[in-house]
Amino acid sequence: MSLDSSRLLNAPSVRAADLHGRFVDGPSTARGVTASNLIVDAGAVTMPHDLDARIPGLGELRKRTLGDPRVTIVVLDGYPDLTLSSLRSDQISMLLPYWHEGASPITAEQHALFREIANSDLPDKQKEERLLTEFSPDILLRILGDRHATHITSVIAGRPGTPAPGIAPACRVIVVPMNQVGEAGEFISPLNLARAFDLAHDWGADVIHCAACVPTQTDSPHDLLARAVRRCLDDNILIVAPAGNNAGDCRCFPAALPGTLAVGALKDDGKPFKFSNWGGNYSADGIMAPGENILGAQPGTEEPIREMGTSVAAPIVTGIAALLMSQQLQAGQQIDAAAIRAALLDTARLCDPAVIDEPERCLRGVLDLPAAFEALFTSRGGIGASGRDDRLLVGVGPVPQTGVMTSAASSSVEETLSPSALPPTVADSAASAPASVGATGGVEQSTAHSGLVYALGSLAYDFGSEIGRQEFEQYMGREAGRAGPDRPTPHEVQHLIEYLDRRRTERDCLIWTLVIGGSPVYGLVPEGPYADTIYETFLQLLAGQSLTPDQSDFIERISIPGRRTGEMIRLQSKAEVPIVAVTDLRGIYGWKINELVDDAVNRIHGAEATPARAFLHHAVTDFLNRVYFELHNLGQMSRDRAMNFAATNVFQAASGFAAAVDEGRVLDTIVVTKSPVCRMHSDCWELSLTFFDPDDEGRAAKMFQFTIDVSEMMPVTVGNVKSWFKRRGFGH
Length: 732
Prior knowledge:
By secondary structure, this protein is α/β, with parallel strands linked by helices. The chain contains 20 helices and 26 strands. It is globular and about 80 Å long. Residues 406-428 are annotated as: Disordered.
């Protein structure tokens, strides 16, 4: 008998909203497996895998390759137990996110207590009550997330010959543990997910396995998340995500985003689970894989466990995709993520309506590994690049019995408190690097990539706490000698600026923030010999932002160069944002849109008010706004910093673009690519803007191109802005 989930979810200390949809597997069973019933032989790398008989072709593929360390899989999930024999490998490491403070790992004793309660003979209600008594909500959520991540990581890359062997153990695996805060919603925050995808991209991912499943009713993603995913797809990265277990014609992100590979769950009898999501984009971009009785590791013990759900089906596809990438490399080819995705989808077997009541639940179809392999590697004669027969020999037998011991108590607790039901929260460290796991299983954390930031947004300030706000109110009122409703208040920007002009030492008592899309994303701290001047600049920018949009000195947005310190700062809302040290005045721009557009238009039509001038003024304003909104990002990765600095150049060179607009052309595309030519030790990118005439498709398009070097904190333009004409439909 399963636990009454409504009782647990209505408990005062755990809200339903906190547990809903953060990981994907609502319904889940957990079946313990005794380690003594499994052969443990670290040297037996070719021993049969638990899934060989359930996935035709897998055994033959694993005889060819167990993976390649040149293939990198980044797993976005919880905090796995890397001390286990199945995960104690130099190929598996941890990369702690920079956007949250770290937390002490869940102890072995805490995991043992969870298992003790889950496997006890107590009635379900008493199990619930004891779990909520023994663990605070944040610790309980973290335990469940760590169990989820441990299982998923072992399915992908567990060491051969251990209790939980994985599919592709020779591939490099980096786990980004995003559940360390223990606060609901952090894992599925679009901002944090976008950060995670960008981080995975920057660390060389070939496959990103994302355990998150953010439910959607509209199938319309947040722009930041959509951009981050698209950036990965454009750079030859395969994204695999579970379809979700909401039991119906519904979807979740990132699985529902075009270009990703969504994975649904099959029962042992080959039929789709009723809870496995379907519909929408899944019918084109989704595939079904085994999702019942999937063997994997659990933290704190060598005893493996069997789970079910779409989130345990997805890592099977991730592991198989990594093997196919490894085969590409070993055949002398380049990794082609798009080709692998297309092969898996195009060869998927359709469900038979005579057998499956609702065949649309099978998404695009059921995984057919031999057919996918043949599509990728087999030449006309059946011999691949290796000179041998590259067809997978398929033997289908009964589902193997591996000494499974079913624990009803464990099953009932995991059904409600499964890792899939909890919100993975996010761990931080000072920008981190992958660290190898030694024989002891310890994780050594190091620092992240450059840490440079060049971001666009608006300037704001925060008091850090209610006490901080009250202190400012009292000091400002006391200095003005006024009390009551007419006293100055820090919420009035002009009042605050006047106060800080007189009390210069109070400037660093505020938390200065950069806001993107309405959310604060960085805490800005002026440092170095120019700190006072930077504070003065902040006040000027703040004053310009406080004006009305029709005033000529109105500042709509700013640019900030800096470097992440690896530390976080807590705002009054309790949100935490990374600290960016701002040490250089160069690159801090405030864009006076009205003045900029007026100047550009005046150079073409003069200052006299005419219909043509008004039209051009509106068109140039729209163009500049589109450049900003189409390019906006967090400004951390090289590509993003190049885009943002190029955007400042677009504004500075607005008159040149205004001429193109005045010729009847409109902005068509904005493309950012790595520059094929660059100075030594530089990091150069090219941003190209294409303008075309919507009324005359035969008219040549006009191209503008910037080359940006972002190797230092302050990006620089390499050469001049280049422009030329090209025929429509031809490359540049």
